[in-house]
Design brief:
CATH class of the largest domain: Alpha Beta
Number of domains: 2
CATH topology of the largest domain: Beta-Lactamase
Strand content: 15-25%
CATH architecture of the largest domain: 2-Layer Sandwich
Largest sheet: 6 strands, antiparallel
Radius of gyration: 45 Å
C-alpha cells in the first residue's frame, strides 16, 4: 500500500486519520490534513484512488454511500473485486492496466459508462472519470470519480416512456380523426373509437354513452361485456346517485377515480368485476353535454391525468362529429319539409288550375246538356277514372 504521506503530497488526498488527541492543539499539518479529508468527504461524487496493482488507497464518504462498503473494509483490496461485477472484472482490469502502464501522466479521461456492483450484490450504472497521477517516489496512482447514474437512467427511462406514451396519443388522435372523417354513421364511429382506444393503450374496458332525454344510453363497448350491454339496451338514468358516468354527464366535468373502491358513488358492474380505476369524460359541445366516454382499468392508480387529457381531446373531436351529424340531419329534415310543402303547393295549384279550366269550359257551353257532358268528362279526366255520371235533380212544387 502506498505511503499516505506520499498520496497526500501528490494527489491532495489522504487516507482516514485517527481521531485527534484530546490533549493540546493539533499541529498545523494535522489540521490541514483533516480539512482536506473533510473536503473529500463533502464531494458529491465517489472519490477512489488505486495503485498500479489495482489496490484501493483512497475511499471517501460518498464512495461508502454509493458502493455500501466502509473505508476500513476496502482499503488495500483490489478495486475490481470490490466494485465491478464478476463477469466484467477481467475486461475492466485490462483497461485500467493499459492506463497505468502505458500512460505515465494523463489529463482527465472522458467519462466512461459502466456497470458497478454494490456491497449487497445489486448492479447499477455509474459514470467513471479518472486521471493518472505520479507520486514523489515515481509510482502511479489512478484517481477515479464515480457518479451513481441510477436516478439519471430512471429519469431518462421515464422521459422515453412519456415520449412513447405521447407518440401513441398522437397516433390515436390521428386515427380517431381519420375514423371520424370516414364514419358513415354515428354507431359505426362509436364502435371504432372504443376499440381503437383499447387497442392503443390496453385499457380493461371502454364504452360510450349518448344522452337521450333523461337517460344515458350505451352505444358501443369493448369485449363480451360491451356486446351484452349493447344487446340488452343498457342505459343509466341521468339522475342516478351511484354512477361516475351519470355524475360526469350532470356536472359536465371529467370524473377520475384512481381507486374506485374509495369512491362512494361508484356503481359496480357485474360484467366488469376487475375494474379498479375509472375515468368518465363528458362529450360536450360548449356547455351542451351530448354523451360520456368511460374508460376502466383493472389496477388501482393505473389511470391518471395524462389519460384524462387524452380522452378529453378525443371527446372534443367526437362532439364535433356529433354536432356535424346533428346539423346535417337538421338540414336534411328542413330540406325534406321544404320539398313536401312545395309538392303540396304544386298539387293545390294544379287543382285550382283544373277547376278554373272546367269553369271556363262550362261557361262556354251552348246548352245545359253540353255543360253536363263537359263537366262529366273533365271530372273523369282529372280524377283519373273511366266513367263519370252527373245527376241533376229538378225540384217541382
Amino acid at each position: 500500500m502506498e505511503d499516505p504521506e506520499k498520496i497526500m503530497t501528490t494527489t491532495n488526498s489522504l487516507p482516514k486519520n485517527k481521531p485527534e488527541a484530546e490533549q493540546g492543539r493539533p499541529r498545523p499539518d494535522v489540521a490541514g490534513r483533516l480539512s482536506i479529508e473533510a473536503m473529500f468527504d463533502a464531494m458529491p461524487e465517489a472519490l477512489v484512488a488505486i495503485d498500479t496493482a489495482g489496490l484501493i488507497q483512497l475511499w471517501n464518504q460518498r464512495a461508502q454511500e454509493i458502493f455500501g462498503w466502509p473505508a476500513d473494509q476496502v482499503l488495500g483490496r483490489p478495486w475490481p473485486e470490490v466494485a465491478i461485477p464478476e463477469q466484467y472484472r477481467q475486461a475492466h482490469w485490462r483497461g485500467l492496466q493499459n492506463l497505468l502502464q502505458n500512460q505515465p501522466s494523463v489529463a482527465p479521461h472522458p467519462p466512461l459508462q459502466l456497470i458497478a456492483v454494490r456491497r449487497l450484490g445489486n448492479e447499477f450504472p455509474i459514470e467513471l472519470t479518472f486521471s493518472l497521477l505520479q507520486t514523489t517516489d515515481n509510482t502511479s496512482l489512478l484517481v477515479m470519480f464515480a457518479r451513481d447514474m441510477t436516478e439519471r437512467k430512471e429519469a431518462r427511462a421515464r422521459v422515453e416512456e412519456s415520449l412513447e406514451h405521447r407518440t401513441r396519443q398522437v397516433q390515436l388522435t390521428t386515427e380517431v380523426a381519420q375514423e371520424i372523417a370516414a364514419a358513415p354513421a354515428v354507431d359505426k364511429l362509436f364502435q371504432q373509437v372504443v376499440y381503437l382506444i383499447q387497442a392503443q393503450f390496453g385499457y380493461y374496458h371502454v364504452h360510450v354513452y349518448t344522452l337521450e332525454g333523461a337517460d344515458l344510453v350505451m352505444q358501443a363497448g369493448t369485449g363480451s361485456a360491451g356486446k351484452i350491454m349493447k344487446e340488452a339496451g343498457h342505459k343509466i338514468p341521468l339522475n342516478a346517485e351511484k354512477s361516475l358516468v351519470a355524475r360526469a354527464a350532470r356536472s359536465g366535468r371529467p370524473v377520475l377515480a384512481f381507486d374506485v373502491r374509495r369512491m362512494p358513488d361508484w356503481l359496480p358492474n357485474p360484467l366488469l368485476p376487475n375494474t379498479r380505476a375509472e375515468v368518465s369524460i363528458p362529450i360536450k359541445l360548449k356547455q351542451t353535454v351530448l354523451g360520456v366516454l368511460d374508460v376502466q382499468n383493472d389496477a388501482a392508480d393505473s389511470l391518471g391525468v395524462e389519460d384524462q387529457l387524452l380522452l378529453m381531446s378525443l371527446c372534443g373531436q367526437i362532439a364535433l362529429f356529433l354536432a356535424a351529424k346533428q346539423e346535417t340531419a337538421h338540414r336534411e329534415a328542413i330540406e325534406a319539409e321544404r320539398v313536401r310543402l312545395l309538392a303540396t303547393a304544386e298539387r293545390r295549384a294544379g287543382r285550382e288550375r283544373a277547376i278554373r279550366n272546367i269553369i271556363e269550359k262550362l261557361r262556354a257551353a251552348p246548352t245545359v246538356d253540353a255543360a253536363l257532358h263537359i263537366a262529366a268528362k273533365e271530372l273523369a279526366d282529372h280524377l283519373t277514372v273511366s266513367h263519370a255520371v252527373i245527376e241533376v235533380g229538378i225540384e217541382t212544387e
